[in-house]
Structures are given as C-alpha cells and as structure tokens.
Amino acid sequence: MKSQFLEAGQIVNTHGIQGEVKIVPWCDSPEFLCGFDTFYIDGAPVKVRAARAHKGNVLARLEGVEDVNAAMRLKSKIVEIDRSGIVLPEGRHFIADLIGLTVIDDDTGASIGVIAEVLTPPAHEVYVVKGEGKTYMIPAVDAFLRGTNVDEGWVRVHLIEGMEG
C-alpha cells in the first residue's frame, strides 16, 4: 500500500541567523520541493513560510522556527511531503513506490527479482534488481522497460546480456 507521505529530503544545516534551514532534496529538483506550502517533520505538519532553491539545495523558513537555535534542533530531520497534492506525468512513478516491485522478464514471463534500489545518475534512473543469487542493473528507459503497474506490484523488462552483475 502506498504511504500518504513521501520522504523528500533532509535538513542538513541552518542558514543564517534568522532560522532558515538547509534541506538536501531527495526529489527531482529543489524547485519541486519549493512548491509545497506544508512539510511534515516527525509526522507533524509544518507550514513553509518561504522556500528557495540555492546551489542544488532548498533554503526554507518554517513556521515556528524563528532563530538559529530553533533551526539547529531540526538538523538531521527528514522532510516529508503529502502525495495527495502531486500529479505525476504519464509513465512517471515515485521511487518509494518502485522499491519492492516484482521484476518480470518480458520474454520468458519469469520473475527475476525485486527492485531493491533506484540509482539516479544524471542520464536516467537505473533499477537495481535483486534475485536469487543475482543482481541486475536495468536502465529505466523505453528500450528495457516494457510496462509498470505499481498498483499490481510489477515491472516488465527486456533483459540483455551484461545486465547481470
């Protein structure tokens, strides 16, 4: 079952003395994270008073965080967002929803394992699939992906030699 909240970043430091926090985003871009008016920290909603992208990170002013001391208490906290307000483009999925999906070889119909990790290098995502004694690295591009159904729990792929690691 999909969780209502998605981990979207981590507060790694303070910024200045006015209580801003520096967040390393775990989503597509810092600008995406800046678009939210509420973050969830330790399960509680926290209103975002202002947020801006800065050098690949997000600098945010949060309600109730008025000075550097209050901001310092949030260091290392995970920032979550509510998925209900997000509409993804066709064919895009949250990484959190892909982890654990069964991966099926489209040519044979056999299960080769489950997605254990999704790597996000600059070119495209790569699915790390763990099977019985085998690990596969599958680029998340049309040449290899044949279908994804998060609700039913599967991804169909076209395998080629060399994907097995």
Describe the overall structure.
It is a single chain. The longest helix has 5 residues, at 30-34. The mean pLDDT is 92. A hairpin with a 5-residue loop joins strand 7 and strand 8. This protein has helices spanning 30-34, 68-72, 95-98; strands spanning 5-15, 20-25, 38-41, 44-54, 57-62, 78-82, 102-105, 111-119, 126-130, 135-139, 145-149, 154-157. It is 8% helix and 45% strand. It has three helices and twelve strands, in the order E-E-H-E-E-E-H-E-H-E-E-E-E-E-E. The radius of gyration is 19 Å and the shape is elongated. The protein has 165 residues and is mainly beta. The strands form two sheets. It has a six-stranded antiparallel barrel. A six-stranded mixed β-sheet has the order 10-9-8-7-12-11, with no helix packed on it.
Helix-strand layout with pairing:
Elements (H helix, E strand, L loop, with lengths): L4 E11 L4 E6 L4 H5 L3 E4 L2 E11 L2 E6 L5 H5 L5 E5 L12 H4 L3 E4 L5 E9 L6 E5 L4 E5 L5 E5 L4 E4 L8
Parallel strand pairs: 7-12
Antiparallel strand pairs: 1-2, 1-6, 2-5, 3-4, 3-6, 4-5, 7-8, 8-9, 9-10, 11-12
Give the SSE order as H and E letters.
EEHEEEHEHEEEEEE
What's the quaternary structure here? Answer: single chain
Structural class: mainly beta
Helix content: under 10%
How many DSSP H or I helices?
3
Strand content: over 45%
The number of E-state strands comes to 12
Strand order of the largest sheet: 1-2-5-4-3-6
**Average pLDDT:** 92
Uncertain segments: none
Give the overall shape, derived from the CA principal axes: elongated
Head-to-tail CA distance between termini: 30 Å
* Biggest sheet statistics: 6 strands, antiparallel, barrel
Q: Report Rg.
A: 19 Å
